[in-house]
Amino acid sequence: MAQVVVVTSGKGGVGKTTSTAALGAALAQGGENVVVVDFDVGLRNLDLVMGAERRVVFDLVNVVQGDAKLAQALIRDKRLENLSLLPASQTRDKDALTPEGVERIVSELREKFDWILCDSPAGIERGATMAMRHADMAVVVTNAEVSSVRDSDRIIGLLDSKTLRAEQGLRMPKHLLLTRYDLARAARGEMLKVEDVLEILSIPLLGIIPESQDVLRASNLGAPVTLASPASAPARAYAEAAKRLKGEQIQVTMPAAEPRGLFGKLFGRRAVA
Amino acid sequence: MNLLALFRKRDSAPVARERLQVLLAHERAVVGGSDLIAILQEEILAVIAKHIAVDRDKVQIKLDRGDPVSTLEIDVEVPSLVRAASTARRVPEAAARR
After folding, report:
1. Could you tell me which residues come within 8 angstroms of residue B11 by beta carbon, excluding any fewer than 6 positions away?
2. Residues A222 and A49 sit within 8 Å (Cβ to Cβ)
3. Residue B34, class by beta-carbon neighbours within 10 Å (0-12 exposed, 13-18 middle, 19+ buried)?
4. Looking at chain B, which terminus has fewer C-beta neighbours within 10 angstroms, N or C?
5. Helices then strands (H, E): number in chain B?
């Protein structure tokens, strides 16, 4: 059965789009049939990070409003044939997304794909609530920094109240993806520790993505980091996070501190249940 | 840079953790619809307004949300004691007459 996953955070700039692209590609690399959907209407960027910016003809709003068929708007990845992108509109605003239109598209996507990853815009307004509305589970992207943790806490509250699952009285499974993590700084007491963020937000850990030049390099090249540099630390962390999303039990690896690499030890941390 | 400054700089993560824990405890309560401090503030002001013509600009409110105690400080500037007292007396009388 298809899984709809919302990648959300509240705060901007924490790595939602990068993570959507990397998790989507990692799932596809594992043989799953995946679509990544950009809900950031007006400020689309998933197309750019995926390297498909020059192939966008129709977008999410065109399909919502019935101006284009879903199949016309979907862009198949050139590297992975089982990975597709549904881009957002760049010229419209978020009010162009109607609840009925989004519901229709999500149910059509459920027929075609195993995984539907919804890249949420920042904030808690319409775009963000539309992106999370039909989710079966959520990936909460957080940096180990006070404003990001506070906004994540707010988003967790919305996931538990504003989603269809919540309204039906069902539990919304939520996973924490800690991005741009700098182990060396955390060890020096300059950055919140993984344990601190987990304790404060109290949702299970999906993965820790280390701060790395490889992520910027990948977005420069227009490829998810798991495709651009599969052997890099962030790519391995995303690949493992994708497996946990599928329900595999793998210990969370503490990323190595760049550039020293002294801390690349395995920590016996509890992964997603 | 002296040693003390170096030590203080390294200690910022525990401060972040503590600030977040206090803040989120309060914010979660607000979302749950039971922000006691905000309710108290509104009701105290309403009681004062019943007896004195309160100029909102002359009311200073200081709030410090903390753990384990929060403080709410309300400082109301009363125009003149005599006038305030007579207003205060008149209101209950008016109520009694009805």
Report:
1. A189
2. yes
3. exposed
4. C
5. 4, 2
Residue A6 CB partners (closer than 8 Å, separation 6+):
A118, A120, A131, A132, A135, A137, A138, A139, A159
Give residue-wise pLDDT tens across range B27-72: 887 665 556 777 777 788 888 888 877 777 777 777 777 777 878 7
Cβ-defined contact of B13 to A157 (cutoff 8 Å): no
- Is it the case that residue B79 has pLDDT exceeding 90? no
Across the interface, whether the CB atoms of B13 and A146 are under 8 A apart is answered no
Radius of gyration of chain B (CA): 21
Give the span between the Cα atoms of A162 and A83, in whole angstroms: 29
Distance from B12 to chain A by nearest Cα, in Å?
A: 6
DSSP E strands in A9-74: the ranges are: 34-38
Distance, CA of A117 to CA of A133 (rounded, Å) = 13
Give the one of A153, A157, A190 whose C-beta lies nearest to B12's C-beta.
A190
pLDDT in tens, A181-232: 998 999 888 899 999 999 999 999 999 999 999 999 999 999 999 999 999 9
C-alpha closest to that of A179 among A208, A214, A147, A150 = A208
Are the beta carbons of A119 and A40 closer than 8 angstroms?
yes
A78 touches B at CB < 8 Å: no
What does the block give as tokens for A65? Answer: 């409003």
Q: Do A186 and B13 touch (CB under 8 A)?
A: yes
Neighbour-count burial of B82, counting CB atoms closer than 10 A to its CB (0-12 exposed, 13-18 middle, 19+ buried):
exposed
pLDDT top residue among B28 and A64: A64
